[in-house]
Specification:
The chain is mostly helical. The chain folds into 2 domains: 1-107, no CATH class; 115-217. It is 66% helix and 1% strand. It has 12 helices and 2 strands. It has helices at residues 2-24, 33-53, 58-61, 66-79, 86-105, 115-122, 125-147, 153-182, 187-205, 213-220, 241-251, 267-274, and strands spanning 228-229, 233-234. Strands 1-2 form a two-stranded antiparallel ribbon. A hairpin with a 3-residue loop joins strand 1 and strand 2. Helix 4 (66-79) runs antiparallel to helix 5 (86-105). The longest helix has 30 residues, at 153-182. It is globular, with a radius of gyration of 33 Å. The relative contact order is 0.06.
Amino acid sequence: VCGNFLISISLNIQKYTHVRQSQRGTKPYYTSRLWWCGILLMGLGELGNFAAYGFAPASLIAPLGSVSVIASAVISVVFLKETLRASDILGGALALTGTYFLVTFAPHSSPHVTANMVERSLVSWTFLIYFMFEMILFAILMYLYKCRNIKHIVIMMILVALLASVTVISVKAVSGMITETIRGSHLTIFACVCLLAFTGVFLIARARPRIKMDRVFISMGQIPGIPITPDSGPAIEPSRVQDIMGLCLCISGKRCTDKVQPQSDDSKYGKLASKLTCNSGIQDEP
């Protein structure tokens, strides 16, 4: 409830900033400190909603989103001097009544969400059928909205509701797993292992020099037996790829401690490769 109330305050602050900046014709709205205060309040409110999904069922938390709508209506009338209509009062009363019954009869406990539970749910036929149905319905409504230019409010609300349903499921899963991690579950070990793996890969690839291939091919033109043509580049036989790669490592600045092994059926390349020795660093496998 507090999170949704903060969201309603932030929306009204942002709207007030937009109206003021447009009337004054001054700098853009994102240069105003007041607008950024509204963004900060919205972030805090959404953080509160996110945390609530980790401790209570989604059927209990989701209906409380109507609090932000009702609070926004009240704040806009008091501070932004907007008009309050009879339909607004009736709609607010119906929303409060529906929210009260939903909260009263909704389950007040939910099973602990774990990674295994989320994995099983994502591959279950129930979720797959639901998700496919939602995608098809969303595509049909988007076709009516964009191609047929049907801008009815019901279509827009259904589109938002379809997206919100997937968002609520995702937030519930992530928030529940974070809650289990804080309580001492083994998700903690998984996060630490991922961090170690990422750190190891970063340390391995951190200071690797980059091979400039243009310099390599220019240097290859100086090797006897490898002609360079102006149009097609170096004419290298496929059977000599292994020998030439070894030579490129030495010419481009790479160092090795073993000799480059040539093909056994050619004495010319064998004599050339056997005389090339680089002194320290990476050792090529024979």
